[in-house]
Amino acid sequence: MIKVCKFGGTSMADGITTMRVKRIIDADPARRYIVVSAPGKRYSGDIKVTDLLYETAREVKEGGHVGDAYARVAARYRAVVREMDLAFDIDALIDETAKDIERERSFDFAASRGEYLAGRIMAAVLGIPFIDARDVIKFKGEGLDEEKTYALVREALKGKPRAIVAGFYGEDERGRVKTFSRGGSDITGAVVARAVGADEYENWTDVSGFLACDPRIVPSPVGIGTLSYKELRELSYMGANVLHAEAVYPVREANIPIRILNTFRPEDAGTRIVAAEDVASGRTVTGIAGKKNFTVIFIEKTRMNEMSGFALLPLEVLKRYGLSFEHMPSGIDSLSFVIESSQLEGGVREKVLEEIRLAVQPDRMKVIEGIALLAVVGHGMKEKVGTAARLFEAIARAGVNVRLIDQASSELNIIVGVDNENYERSIKAVYEEFFVRGDAKS
Ligand code: ASP
Prior knowledge:
CATH architecture of the largest domain: 3-Layer(aba) Sandwich
Bound molecules: aspartic acid
Radius of gyration: 24 Å
Distance between the termini: 36 Å
CATH topology of the largest domain: Carbamate kinase
Strand order of the largest sheet: 3-6-2-1-9-11-12-10
Largest sheet: 8 strands, mixed
Low-confidence stretches: none
CATH class of the largest domain: Alpha Beta
């Protein structure tokens, strides 16, 4: 049995939490390969080491040397070593790392040192080998060189009963350190799990798995015990950010279950993420997620449906401006694009509208701002007659006007657009319907 475990920033935040991590690892001999994040926040308002390292990179860029931000980074690691009473020459490592950051002068390199230092310390805590992610995680362009990476990880871990791998970074084709996007240690964990053919990928964080909706909107929503990879993808894409959205791919292909667990409540069952869709939550709706601030561009042209390739015209405009759209609901004579409003700032919106107008010659065009999208996700909806009716009734009861509906043919989710100011109210209403009142019906 092999488990790959990833511990997030709050788990690595200080000496006490690192001690917890050690206890968790020691409690199960199957926990063999450990991926660590850089120390995160110890309390709300604290600054993550990774953020301090980006600041360090700026200091080096401006003045050639590491400065105050790096001094704070150093203090964090010194405290971890001191609190754990560890015999480890942290001062030497801190000095050496400062020189490396000054020499490399790269944001990615500076940021990566958070995981590098955390990994070095954790390897000393457990008395097991440290694997520098630079040697095994290889990028090709923006993406991962999967074949090479899997082979190198396997090779590096061969014959090692246990080891630490630093999360978040790897090396590009030119031999320079490159990081994943923020929160990317989740991806490293998934990649290691895939490479060694793990039986399970445990992702240890500071919450006991996924909740059926955002606890800032509904106090103490129910936890999701089991989730399918597909449901996870939908929910994380729409804002349920317990796990990096890209961490799913490596393990999904190899059918390795992911378990989200809480370092601060290790006895909680957490959420298990699996391939099988039938064993997923067992409810009609598995979870509800959403995001605010979308713009809808609505285009109407009579007999649009008869014109072949019509949709290509506005799409080409979007492509020229490098815009991605979230959804494209369409009718017989109309087509809409739902786009994150932030992409349209700085005059882009006006230019794009003008170009679409020229390209399409629409009968009517309308722009709706301030739209929030709500995703109601669950394989269970497929078999249940009346789910959509329940959903829309719930939203109507809350006195909210639905501005847009989009349901993919997979029937895995229904997306509903409402005005930003009705977002929280709608989430509450839908949660109430499917998880409180409708529990028996589900
Ligand atoms: N330390 C990095 C971040 O703060 C990566 C991670 O924690 O996964 O984004």
